[in-house]
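Blinded run. Sample ID left blank on purpose so nobody reads anything into the name before looking at the predicted structure. Input follows.
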Amino acid sequence: MTVEKNNQKEFSGTDDKPVAIVTGGGKGIGAACCKALAEQGFFVGIHYRTSQQTAEKILAEINGEGFLLQADLTDTDQVEGMVRRMKEETGRVDVLVNNAGMCINDAIITMKIEGFDAQRSILRGIWFLTKRILRLFMLRRSSGRIINISSVVGHTGNAGQIPYTMEKAALDAMTKSLAKELWGRNILVNSVAPGFIDTDMTRELSEEVQQGILGSIPLGRMGQPEEVAEVVAFLAKQGGYINGSVVHVNGGMYGG
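Blinded prediction complete.
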């Protein structure tokens, strides 16, 4: 059910259990978000593209309080199938966490156009999935939360990551614009911009690069996926007066 507070609806899992969809939910930050949202009483849709085994593991870890969604977000037909699956499984979506992404690294001089297009395609998929969930679920209920996972590098820039930083900056721009488009509909849109988090992606960096990163973080360490997920869970269930904002979770390396 929902309860009113300051003219905003806060979700409660006591009766009609709210549903959260997490893209890229099989590992890293996405997996931590699935667990945190389940702890807050959400029934969680765990999206994955290829990591079925890890997604199944996360579903088991949240005691089956959710369901799996497989799709390549760059393929609109697969996104449509994913949305149909949501409709069949729950008939509602209260929270969408746009976490899925890819990172194609190369200098502008040597990167091929195919690499740029591959990176751009994930942003197109996020836009399309958000559009479909809004039209089918959230606008009908006139309530919901959309949380985009961007990145500190969308604000600071990073050598060798131009398409990736462009994508993350665009996500934050989407957050601010969509919050304005949904004016008066009680659908809150925010971004969470992690810094350097201890995930498979950052572990692939060389020791030299990792040490350079640590030198730029006032807290002197990388963040944990769970520390990002805590903020996502707060925005999903509380934070009723936070809208069109970018929340930085980066240990102080960028003040926003």
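Unblinding after everyone has recorded impressions. DSSP finds nine helices and nine strands in the chain.
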